[in-house]
Amino acid sequence: MTDTSTAPAPFLTAWFEILDSDEPNRILDLISDDFSLSILFSTGDGNATDFAGDRAALVGYLEQRERGTRTHHLLSATTLGQDELFLGEVRRGGVPEASFVAAGRVDDTGRLQRLLIGRSSEIRFD
């Protein structure tokens, strides 16, 4: 794993690096006890899936993911206090597939407390 400590959104940068790794379930070690999320996942066909809830929802999201086919790439990011904002691109085999935005709140213990992600294949940030 690369050193992400100087990234503009160090926690989310490391999060997506782990998610793209051979062991994406390691992100479960990075969430707080009161973690909650919503990942709104659109494929551009007018349908969207919302993985929302707590740890169990994140486990469900991880179980349905295609491992090793998609990678997350940073376009821009910033940190404001405990909040990180991350604009990225999802690629499949190196080819851009979708854009996404993620917002996360890191608690005082350094664990992710809140996560909101929206993904769409209908818009690109070139």
Would you kindly provide a written description of the structure presented here, covering whatever features stand out?
By secondary structure, the protein is of the alpha+beta class. The protein has a single domain (22-120), classed as Nuclear Transport Factor 2, Chain: A, CATH 3.10.450.50. 16% of the residues lie in helices and 48% in strands. The chain contains 2 helices and 6 strands. The protein has helices at 10-19, 55-64; strands at 31-42, 48-53, 70-80, 83-92, 95-106, 112-120. It has a 6-stranded mixed β-sheet with strand order 2-1-6-5-4-3, with helices on one face. The protein is globular, with a radius of gyration of 14 Å. The protein starts with 9 loop residues before the first helix and ends in a 6-residue tail after the last strand. The mean pLDDT is 93.
Short note summarizing the structure:
This protein is an alpha+beta fold and 126 residues long.
CATH class: Alpha Beta
Based on CA inertia axes, which overall geometry fits? globular
Runs with pLDDT <50, length 5+?
none
Spatial order of the strands in the main sheet? Answer: 2-1-6-5-4-3
The DSSP helix count reads 2
Any idea what the radius of gyration is? 14 Å
Q: Main β-sheet: number of strands, strand sense, barrel status?
A: 6 strands, mixed
Q: What is the element string, with H for helices and E for strands? A: HEEHEEEE
Distance from N terminus to C terminus (CA atoms, Å) equals 26 Å
